[in-house]
Specification:
about 230 residues, TIM Barrel, eight-stranded parallel sheet, 10 helices, binds D-xylitol-5-phosphate, binds zinc ion
């Protein structure tokens, strides 16, 4: 099983759990599973590659069983300096895929190989400071399953979408065959245009969890993306 099995009807909206209400995390995940959500985005920041320390394997271990039982998967976005160091524990804690940053991986093919050795899917991410051509080249070299074009400077939920991301996604889409993921400021106002630009995996933190009803917000986003 891998990304080609996880993406239904050509696109997925992935709630970014970083933006969840942590007091009610299990409840919010169960509600999203009930609404049909199957791919969850899990952000790990190390306080160095990005300023904040976010969440890691302890949280992952507590949520993975119920997500997997329902047929869901966990897509881990590693905003960390030394991704390889974390693969074993993420795999053991229930990660299904890891996305690491090209800015933190001078040899992306080697890093990807290490991830696959742990049975993990592989994504390659690049920040707004990296040209899409560089992200594409790394993704191709690594044989990445997905490519993540960040549409904010990584670190925090709730930032504004950077409009130049449309052109960056179009450039990327012309260069890679792998599904393109977009992360940062994705919402109902831009999701359809992002699909037109070439993205098919839509990470949504604030747009899901700041809504009065996150499941309703998820459903509306999924409909807008379809
Ligand atoms: C931040 C994370 C994102 C974040 C997105 O760097 O990578 O996944 O949770 O949040 P929104 O959708 O609110 O921009
Ligand atoms: Zn993310």
């Amino acid at each position: 099983m891998g990304w080609s099995d996880w993406i239904r009807d050509g696109c997925e909206v992935e709630p970014s759990l970083y933006a969840a209400d942590f007091r009610r995390l299990g409840e919010q995940i169960d509600a999203l599973l009930g609404a049909g959500c199957r791919v969850f985005h899990f952000d790990c920041g190390d306080g160095h590659f990005v300023p904040p320390v976010t969440m890691g394997p302890v949280v992952l271990r507590s949520i993975a069983p119920s997500i997997h039982e329902a047929g869901g998967v966990i897509d881990c976005h590693l905003m960390v300096d030394d991704p390889v160091h974390h693969f074993e524990e993420f795999a053991a804690s229930g990660a299904d895929s890891v996305t690491f940053h090209v800015e933190a991986a001078p040899d992306p093919a080697r890093v990807a190989e290490k991830a696959r050795a742990h049975g993990l899917g592989v994504g390659i991410a690049f920040t707004p400071g990296t040209e899409p051509e560089g992200g594409a080249e790394a993704a191709i070299r690594a044989g990445a399953d997905i490519v993540l074009c960040m549409s904010i400077h990584p670190g925090y939920s709730g930032q504004s979408f950077m409009p130049e991301s449309f052109g960056r996604i179009e450039t990327l889409a012309a260069l890679v065959d792998a599904p393109i993921q977009v992360d940062g400021g994705v919402g109902e106002d831009n999701i359809a245009a992002l699909r037109n630009a070439g993205a098919s995996l839509f990470v949504a933190g604030n747009a899901v969890f700041s809504a009065a009803d996150p499941t309703e917000a998820y459903t509306r986003l999924a409909a807008a993306a379809a």
